[in-house]
Specification:
single chain; 141 residues; mainly alpha; Arc Repressor Mutant, subunit A; elongated
Length: 141
């Protein structure tokens, strides 16, 4: 299982905006300095805006800014906005996906792993990443 570029780039953009919180709107060009292609970035920021994680400011001095305190934004929220709900298999979210879902001997394993991943992502905030990025400490609070 690999995280898509959509998820990674979305996190890069959010981390950049968290680093520049309070400095006013950030241009698409400045956010693209994170290595995210500018054309792709517009699409990603649209998803983050619809999820309520980013706001936009129009005009010559406009751009994008983080919509909440970095301590209130979890990696789970960012990944949900970028990727949709993280589930290791379809049978975890849809009982009707498989005729054996109620009797499958490994379904509960996939469910536990999915829950574990989501739980860990919910523990990590952008605020924690900002703090620990400089200090080199563990990200989990």
């Amino acid at each position: 299982m690999k995280l898509s570029t959509r998820g990674k780039y979305g996190l890069y953009a959010m981390f950049y905006l968290a680093q520049h919180q309070g400095e006013g709107p950030q241009s698409l060009q400045s956010i693209a300095s994170t290595g995210v292609p500018k054309q792709y970035l517009e699409q990603l920021l649209g998803n983050l805006r619809r999820a309520g994680l980013v706001t936009t400011v129009r005009g010559a001095q406009g751009g994008y800014q983080i919509a909440k305190d970095p301590e209130d934004i979890t990696l789970l929220a960012i990944m949900d906005a970028m990727e949709g709900p993280i589930e290791l298999t379809e049978c975890v979210s849809e009982d009707s996906f498989c005729d054996r879902s109620c009797t499958c001997p490994v379904r509960h394993v996939w469910q536990r792993l999915t829950d574990s991943i989501n739980s860990e992502l919910a523990k990590i905030t952008l605020g924690g990443m900002l703090t620990n990025h400089c200090e080199g400490e563990a990200l989990v609070q």
